[in-house]
Amino acid sequence: MSQQLKSWDMDADEDTMKDLYLCFSLENRDYAFEVRHLTEILALPAITTIPGTAPFLKGVINIRGKIIPVMDVRMRFDIPFKPYHERTCVLLVELDGLPLGLIVDTVNDVLRIPSENIDLAPKIGESKSSRFIYATGRVGDSVKILINLQRLLTEEETVLIKDIPGN
Amino acid sequence: MERDDVLEYLLEARETLENIEKDLLQFEKSTLDGSLVERDLLDTLFRHFHTIKGSSGFFGLSAIVKMAHAAENLLDYLRNHPEAQDEDTLELLITALDHLNELVEHEESSPSGGDFYKEEQTQFLKKLNEKNDLIRLKQIQTEEFAEPKQEESEFGLFSETKLSENSNEEFGLFLESSDPNPKEEFGLFTNDSEQAPKEEFGLFAKKEETLGKESLQKTEEILKTEKKPVIKKDIRIDTDKLDSLLDIVGEIVITEPMVTDHPDITKLKLENFQKTALQLKKLIRNLQEITLSLRMVPIAGIFTRMERLVRDTAKKTGKQVLLSISGEDTEIDKSIIEEMYDPLVHIIRNAIDHGLETPQERKEAGKQPQGTIQLTANQSGKEVWIEVRDDGKGLSREKILNKAVSLGLIHQSETENLEDKDVWEFLFHPGFSTANQVTDLSGRGVGLDVVRKNVTTLKGFVDVFSNYGYGTTFLIRVPLTLAIIEGLVVRKSDTYFILPSIDVKESMYLSNEPINELYKNNHSIQYRTNQISIVDINLLFGKDSELNDQRSLKEKYLIVTESHEKQMGIVFDEILGNQSIVIKPISPIFKNINGLAGCTILGNGHAGLILDVRKLISNHLSSVTI
Lengths: 167, 626
Prior knowledge:
The complex is a heterodimer of chains A (167) and B (626). By secondary structure, chain A is mainly beta.
């Protein structure tokens, strides 16, 4: 089990960050991803909508002079859209050198989940949102859903975006 | 050796080669008018080749070393025997330069250990070395004749070392070997240095004082000339660094009013604070100007490259051409300059090949046998105008029209009424060539349409003017910089858009204008004498137009945009005004976005979207017909 995980986790050399996960919630469900991807947590700034793109790509924001695209993670997971409120957060991550902002309901905390507490997710169907989940992590009595950030932006989406008329 | 280091060096080498080219063209001028080349120029050329040789040797690029070494030898000979200057040596030097360019390019694209990769190159090197041997042999023979004291045996030694040296490219020895010292001392010297390892060279110089002094002087001289022409001090900067500097300065500019007009202090009377704040404002404005100017470089770089092109093209076509350049210190964004090279090459080649007549024809037409091409740059507002003017035979209206008719672009009956400028417009049509035959230079199907396409990508324009019998002028207008544009900031609900000012024709209040709805999603309005299509952003990006159900358009604004003489009106809620905009790219995460040219950050901290009006118009108008 841990063997498999290692092969997924290519950058295991960052020892201090090892096993650290950032937890956030959507619809009372707890998700987590490896903290090494995270660069910053922000309150949601004004979003500039980009016309003609997939609905889950909400647009761009200005972070100290940098223009960064933001994705609504709820909509990405096919959870109905909920209006943003003052606790709505943007998690700035960097994926393959591309900065991306993830809009989530609430950020909880950073937890250590040792690899022995992680179970690869069972393959139950190939539903749309299960593609982003790769494992579950046990923390005390609760279970965090571990997501594979890279999958948030996979090639399949290109087709989806292409289907939008006008493109 | 790290590949990166090599690449960086090759970039440097290219610059040196460009300098060589510039100097060689100067060389040619004096060769052609029969005067002797100035010593300074020879020294500079020699130094350039020497630099190339030295540094390439360091990187193990042996082919470049050999070639540069041979050219250096020839130049060194010229330095001491300026009377040997002729067209043949010039041609050799120019060809050597071409080969060096080729070698550098080859090394950049496919690193191959730095050796020759073409038979042609080895052949040429042989030729160049033979020439070197020949002229030296000649000289020695004459000297021998003048100085019968010279002993045969020593002479034999000398020429032997010379030969072996040429093929061995031991460039440390080079300076001494071509030293025109009296033969006796020379003989001694070569013997000595052959036996003695390098460290002993210092010793040797002491021993042989006279010779040592002379060679020292020579090295000093080289050192001196190496230092002397410090015209400008350049430093290579990673463009990423430059961009982040631009970003930060942009932020400072935005933040400055946020601080100095902070709501917490606006009600306070702070006279001294206001003074300091004003000072800060000034400094920040200066900072912004300087930062923006960092990307700007004089256009001289590509203009001088045209000299070579004109020379070669003139030679090939057998025409006499004088290129006169002016305004070469006009500054323009570096990325634009690079894109201007191909269009200029094409236009100038055309001008020589099709525009200018042969000397014979020119005489018959009562003109100077030598044709003139004027290449001019000047700044006009936020644009740079680049003009290529020839005094050739001009465009033939009849010929172009015949071709246009034969291609089916226009009907014979319509040709009468066309204005000249509309006729010239056909030249930019793909596949349109008036060349009677395919030549080495033109008529290969790559036409002015490509020129226009290149310039249009830069948000520029190409126009042509012609006076039959008197010449043709091409005028290219490009913006000063691509990183910053002037834009009209508008708002549609809570999104800010920027329309490049260059595309905006007029803005108007929609109050009482009658809007015609032709069918769903297709609205038009009477604008001057035309019906133009009006749209909103939703429609442009593939959703239903809000104009369908929204009849309360009275409060809205219409921006009339134009591209390639097609007009379209876009409806917005508010116009905020004109602004200089720093263009930033949109993240590649947004795939297939058509119609956006980029993003920017506005004074209010919002991200604004820059519309690609040209694309929007062509996309929209191809799907709708009025």
